[in-house]
Amino acid sequence: MTQRKVFIFLSTRPCDLLNILFWDNLLKIFSKIFFTLDSRGTQSLWWCKFCRALWSSIRRHRPRSDSCNTKQAHHQFPSPPGLPQPAMSRRAAMASSAAPRARLSPPAPAVRPPRKRGRSPPAPGSTSSWRASTENAAPRDQRSRWQGPERAPGRVWRQFRPPQPALPSSRRWVSSEDASTSTSGDTCTIMSYNILADYNARNHPDLYQDVPWDAMRWDSRRRLIIREIRHWDPDLVCLQEVDRFQDIAAGMKSRGYEGIFQRRTGDTRDGCAMFWKSKRLHLLEEDSIDFSEFDLRNNVAQICVFELNGAHKLVLGNIHVLFNPKRGDVKLGQIRLLAEKANALAEKWDKIPIVLAGDFNSTPDSAIYKFLTTMKLNISLHDRRQLSGLDSSEFDLYELCSSLKYQWSDEEVRNATGYPNIMVAEHPLKLSSSYANLKGNSNNRGLHGEPLATSFHKKFLGTVDYLWYTHGLECSKVLDTFPIGVLRRTRCLPTREIGSDHLPIIAEFAFTESLEDDSEEEDDSEQDDEPEQEVCTGQHVYPSSDSEAR
Hints:
Helix content is 29%, strand content 18%. It is globular, with a radius of gyration of 41 Å. The chain is built from 17 helices and 17 strands. One of its GO terms (molecular function) is 3'-5'-RNA exonuclease activity. Residues 63-185, 514-550 are annotated as: Disordered.
């Protein structure tokens, strides 16, 4: 009996069959089945046959796709004309029952127009399911917009990288707890900032693999550098790795800064630059050091004399020490020459105070840091390749030869000490570190009191930037760095908030009374036998012991 044949829409999995059972016209199908049965009371028999046919159809007509919905099942197994269609009324279904019965077969898929990306339309005999085009499509990683490093050599930062976490909005100032009352009231804020030359960033892409490509563009980094300087508004700015001085000078001029630039010799393009507020400071003398004249590579340093508000003078030195970790003798010689030149200039201007700023490319645990604080260093006790603390090689055949470990050639000794037969390097300045003298948080300060990190790239995380000062100045506050954990989460510098792989360090200095004048007054009071000399000596705020400690 053909009218008793049952055609339903089947799904791939039993769980998908529930979608068909909730079809709005399914009740009409079941009602038609039971009303057309014989009147012999064989409903239970036909119900068993119906269930048996249902599960056999599931095993026999399993679609190839993984899953489908009601609409897809309708295309896979269309209902015969005698049964109600999804969008067909009962009267229209009864009218279509008179049509000849056709063999059940999937309809021919409609040919879709090709997409804009150039995909070809499906073949006439292919499956019309939308999953067929997905299976034949290229993998997502091959269709990605970004190319891997093997397809774009030399431009590593152009590849896709996950976004970097944002840094805190601002850094905090750390003030001195025991500020002296003998300061004159005039303060001067000095910044030291290695801004990462664009030339160096392009030539060393391996150091910035985790930096988004847009954060490495010079235009965006220049805006961040200028914004950083404007935000902290220092009186004096010492910049290193400056290869586009005009771009920086144009942004600084609008804020009332004047600047000078000293380029390195040789084929390099970067150099050192100084900026100062023309309303507060006046440039009295300008000098520079070309270390190539002393066979100490092609680095340069700047030394200038400034006058603050027409009352106080100071010498400011700006240096970018050689980076090569294995040439500690050259690093030592460059720092020694800078200290000697700054001291000579200070003596010329009546022993005015000195500030040395820059990237010294030496860690606080290094022998060079000890040389700066103690004024001398016996180089025979150190390996020249370990003087800066940057050589992190774990195994070296040279280290195994103890007889050659601390051997220095005459040229290396001359570079470090200035003489070929003297093994002790000395400099004439009694220097103090601005950050080491002010207590900070353990999250961003090391054992020596220095910041845990002022520079961060793929191969280094540590401190190499310093602000040193001599007597006649007192550090009143410093701008603390970010906690070390926050920097590690960024994976590398620069970021979209910081325009360099270095952090700017800033210190505020207050001018104190001249220690030389105090000592002269003490000598004059001792020579006179007047009873008023005790009153005069009692007016001095700093005893001799305190001045030596500073």
